[in-house]
Fold this protein.
Amino acid sequence: MKITDRITKIVVGENEPDPFKYGGVYPPNVYLVRGKNRSVFIDTAHGKPEEIQAHISVWESEGNPEMAGIILTHRHSDHIGGAQALS
């Protein structure tokens, strides 16, 4: 889902129980943010193969921009689980 011309929100996976969120279950969100010369992923979801493939597919659809890195907002597994596989 395009948020702006430089930010794409990637909603991946199924709704899963999240002990850190009050009142429900939510799929993890990942963002591809494109800068002038390089891009970053913000968070990486759980790291399931279908999630990683979704991240890569969005990156490819954006023209394979050079990646500067991955930004992890905090250490919950639904944010950092795919960092190693995606890197």
